[in-house]
Amino acid sequence: MKYPIYKNLFFEADIEIFRGRTKVTSRGILAPLLRTRVSREMSFFDNQKYIFELMPDSDMDNEHANYLNRYGSSLIFSTWMAPIPSPAFSRQVKSRMMSGFGCFHPEQVTLSITEECPNRCLHCALPNKNNHSKLSPTEVKDAIDQCVAAGATNIIFDGGEPLGYAGLEDLISHVPETAVAGLFTSGVGLTFEKAKSLKDAGLYSISVSFDSPFEEKHDHMRGVAGIFKKAAAGVKNAVSAGLLVNMYVVLAPYNVSDLEDFYRLSQELGAHELSFYEIVPTGRWLDNTSDILTKDQHAAFESFVRRHERDGDAKDSQNIDSGPKIFPGPLIVQTFGCMAGRQWLHITPEGNILPCSCVPISYGNIKDGKNAVKTAWKKIRKDPAYGKIGGCLMRDKDFREKYGDKFE
């Protein structure tokens, strides 16, 4: 079956499933030109694992039938991406195509709806303000509306711990079909009943964060005993409830040697995707600028990804690794550059609008009015710091020296 990525009178691109992997095909009179211009975007989809296909005649379990009912026949490629095709995915592709011509939109927005959290993570991006800030339901809904109007296709509820926010399901239901709703959580409070309630409200995917595949190390980084067991139980509960589940790992020198153990754990818990993002010196970790991966550690990570994704080495479907799809954040940043202020936007519990959750520079506040997001985005896009493709800005010495006095 073909899943359309993009289509107009002059250019079409589709994803086909071939021997258990994706295959991108394109055609049209402008195909030779556009294939070159969007080659990086196309390579992201080509010859990759995917999560599952939504098909009426498939043997899909009943718990995932709600995705078929909601989106129809489509491909679930990643927990980070809307079904292909879908209204949200179509908007995202158009945005990506426009970015090739220098026009950017805040495609992915993280909304920190509350500062409250039962964890005390050593590397938390939220600074130690201890003022118990949170956005009101009205402010959150206004933020959703403004972000979608500005081009957002992925609205991710974040914290703190968003599961502790009363009325979370109502906020999730407010996300329109032109975007998908995601959620970041430590897993605390993620019972089966809560997961089922979130799914029924329209939650598309949920990401449960892990600092280590080992209980003692994970709890140490979280600053609270017993969090690992709650996170593991949360993954199982979300899977059982029929949600798309992603295990989210902050990759750092202290856990990069545990890659295979993370993979094993994700298999045991039944996660659909295993995502890695490199640790960023921000928030409580702001001064740890030297705590980054070495070239050898990056090479080890790339080898790990190739081993399990088997990029370009699938002779038939039996050779496909049966484990979860891997979302290799560090490799994606190497290819596409830092996405802060180019594709990402973040809103804090105080309402401040930042280029991403790791860049603590405010360009406006959601409470400034109905055009607050678009106004802030224009300011961000005018700032030359976000106009070039490069690595993480918060790991960039020149950026920190130039903008450090603006850090909140």
UniProtKB/TrEMBL annotation:
GO terms for biological process: heme biosynthetic process. Keywords: Iron, Iron-sulfur, Metal-binding, Oxidoreductase, S-adenosyl-L-methionine. Residues 107-304 form the Elp3/MiaA/NifB-like radical SAM core domain. Its EC number is 1.21.98.4. The keyword Transmembrane helix does not apply. InterPro entries: Aldolase_TIM (IPR013785), Elp3/MiaA/NifB-like_rSAM (IPR006638), Radical_SAM_PqqE_MftC-like (IPR050377), rSAM (IPR007197), rSAM_sf (IPR058240). Coiled coil: none annotated. The keyword S-adenosyl-L-methionine applies. One of its GO terms (molecular function) is oxidoreductase activity. SMART domains: Elp3. SUPFAM superfamilies: Radical SAM enzymes (SSF102114). Pfam families: Radical_SAM. This is PqqA peptide cyclase. It comes from Methanolapillus ohkumae.
